[in-house]
Structures are given as structure tokens and as C-alpha cells.
Design goal:
CATH topology: Spore Coat Polysaccharide Biosynthesis Protein SpsA, Chain A
CATH class: Alpha Beta
Largest sheet: 7 strands, mixed
CATH architecture: Alpha-Beta Complex
Strand content: 25-35%
Distance between the termini: 22 Å
Radius of gyration: 17 Å
Number of helices: 7
Structural class: alpha/beta
Helix content: 25-40%
Number of domains: 1
Shape: globular
CATH superfamily: Spore Coat Polysaccharide Biosynthesis Protein SpsA, Chain A
């Protein structure tokens, strides 16, 4: 069974993402756990985990749309090889902003809507359908095998807001010896690009102190390629390069 966990205070967003997942998970055995009053994403996800019954667990933002076909099949295939997966992340974490190590160490691809009705496809790094050896993941979408959450939890004490909970959780999993991966063939449309303002900076300082990241390492300027397309179908085509070949 798949346990889908969503923390959402916005009825309209929750209604839309619920309908999307009902379509994407059609034919699979799954349950949805909605936390409408999370004090933080870490606290909300921990509460959802306590209620979950599935062997595969999805942690999802409420403003995404899965574009990929055969979503349950892809999810199961990746989680048969890896313990924790996401759609963006790094194999070298040097800074609370996971993309700071530069493009050689960052992977993933996500589409974003534009003001004129088109879509920008950000290709961070997609050499293969899945990239292993990952240290930390972005939290817009993560999925895990139950054995991960049986050993580690989201830190709701240090990350009592809505930033850095994802990096901390995935970095915990990496240090616990679990196998992490960025999966490039689970393709998402994300309505928001993230907020890296003062509130993010406060939690970033907590993260750096908690994990004792080397202060001498400074983030590099990161600018991933972006391709503008006219439709979701075209976005999916761009995010499925020919060199991958057929699915395994």
C-alpha cells in the first residue's frame, strides 16, 4: 500500500492536489492522510506517519501536479532500488541551500507555470532516469520505504516552521546508511519556486549549526538551464530525453 501524506491549510489547493493524485494513483492500493492544521511540516508529517499503514510513503506539497504516466509503477520500481527518493537534490551537501555545490553535483528537473500560460522546464541535471549516491533532497516531493521512517523522524524541534525540514530529514537518512536517489522520470509541475528570504535564513543557520557544515565552503552561483514550452505534454517530452532509452 502507498500512504500519501499532505499538509495543507488551503481547501482549494488540497481539493486540486487530491483530485490529481486520485487520477495518478488509479489502480493502486493507497490511502491519503491530510493534516490541515500542521504547526510545521515536520510536525505534520510525523503526525501523518503515525496514522499511516503503507509500506511506501509519499510526502507531497499541496501545489504540485504529477505529469508522468504510470506513476505507481515508477514509484514502486525506484523504491525497489532505493530507500528514499525525490525529484531534486545533491550528492554533495555543503550549504543549507542544496544546490550550492554547483551543477556537477545537483540533479533533477521540475516544470513551473509562467505568467503568460506557458511552462518553464528547469533541467538541473538528468543524465539518467535515476541518480543514486544522493546526500540530500528537496521536499516538494519525497517518497520512502517504511524502514526509513522506522529509524528516523522529521525534526519538529529544530525545524518548527516550513523550511529545511526536508534537507534535515534526507541528510539524516543519508547518514543512517540509507540509499537516496533523485528520480528524473517522476516529473512534476510545481506552482511555486521556493522562498529564500529571512525566515529561510533563520532555519538555514540552525541547519548549518546542527550538521556542523564547514563555514569555509561558500555556495556557488547556480543557474540551471530552462526551456520554455507551451503545454504540459511538451514539458513531459522535454523531461524524457531520448538517450535514456526504454524503461527498465
Amino acid at each position: 500500500m502507498i500512504s500519501l501524506m499532505i499538509c495543507s491549510r488551503d481547501p482549494a489547493k488540497f481539493s486540486a492536489v487530491s483530485a490529481m493524485y486520485r487520477a495518478a494513483l488509479a489502480g493502486a492500493e493507497w490511502e491519503m492522510i491530510h493534516i490541515p492544521d500542521a504547526r510545521s511540516l515536520a510536525e505534520g508529517y510525523n503526525r501523518a506517519i503515525a496514522r499511516s499503514r503503507g509500506e511506501l510513503l509519499i510526502f507531497s506539497h499541496d501545489d504540485i501536479e504529477v505529469l508522468s504516466p504510470d506513476f505507481p509503477g515508477r514509484l514502486a520500481r525506484h523504491l525497489s532500488r532505493f530507500d528514499l527518493i525525490g525529484v531534486a537534490g545533491t550528492d554533495l551537501l555543503i550549504h543549507p541551500h542544496w544546490a550550492a555545490a554547483d551543477s556537477r553535483h545537483c540533479y533533477g528537473q521540475i516544470a513551473y507555470p509562467t505568467a503568460d500560460g506557458k511552462f518553464d522546464v528547469n533541467i538541473i541535471g538528468a543524465p539518467d532516469r535515476a541518480v543514486g549516491g544522493i546526500q540530500a533532497l528537496d521536499g516538494c516531493f519525497m517518497a520512502a520505504r517504511r524502514q526509513v521512517i522506522e529509524r528516523i523522524a522529521f525534526d519538529a524541534v529544530n525545524f518548527d516552521g516550513f523550511h529545511l525540514y526536508d534537507l534535515d530529514f534526507s541528510f539524516q537518512a543519508y547518514h543512517a546508511g540509507f540509499k537516496l536517489a533523485v528520480v528524473n522520470d517522476i516529473n512534476l509541475l510545481h506552482q511555486s519556486g521556493g522562498d529564500y528570504g529571512a525566515e529561510w535564513a533563520r532555519y538555514a543557520e540552525r541547519f548549518a549549526k546542527s550538521w556542523r557544515l564547514p563555514p569555509a565552503l561558500t555556495p556557488r552561483e547556480f543557474d540551471c538551464p530552462s526551456i520554455t514550452v507551451r503545454s504540459k505534454a511538451e514539458a513531459l517530452k522535454v523531461m524524457t530525453p531520448v538517450h535514456w532509452g526504454a524503461e527498465a
